[in-house]
Amino acid sequence: MTVYDLPAINASLNAIATVLLGSGYVAIRRGNKELHKKLMISALAVSAAFLACYLVYHYHAGSKPFPDLGWIKTVYLLILVPHIILAAIMVPMILKTFWHAFRGEWESHKKIARWTFPIWMYVSLTGVVIYLMLYQWFTSAS
Prior knowledge:
This protein is mostly helical. The protein has one domain: Four Helix Bundle (Hemerythrin (Met), subunit A), CATH 1.20.120.80. The protein has four helices and no strands. Helix 1 runs antiparallel to helix 2 and helix 3 (71-102) runs antiparallel to helix 4.
């Protein structure tokens, strides 16, 4: 394995985080607080592993430009730009959400989780889409 294998690992970690987040949401909607807690802690751990791998990859490999494919590149950028902005915003939100849960501040936890959850889901899901577009679907065009 080399550093160039990390994008596939990152996409897998994002996919796992998406499943864990969705499962955690379902668990809390069904009133299963203990399962929700385990799933959300797992999502945090997987997302932290993603961030570590992402930083290692980009430190060693830099960035990969998307090929100029007209409207497809526009679609890619329309997904990428909010993904990047929300990825930067979500880290402190996730930490604040977990902090409130850790302290048992349930009303504060629920209040911020209503914003954190959809942003985290969007970033995790679009991370997989960005990987597919950049490293799988449009590789022959570059």
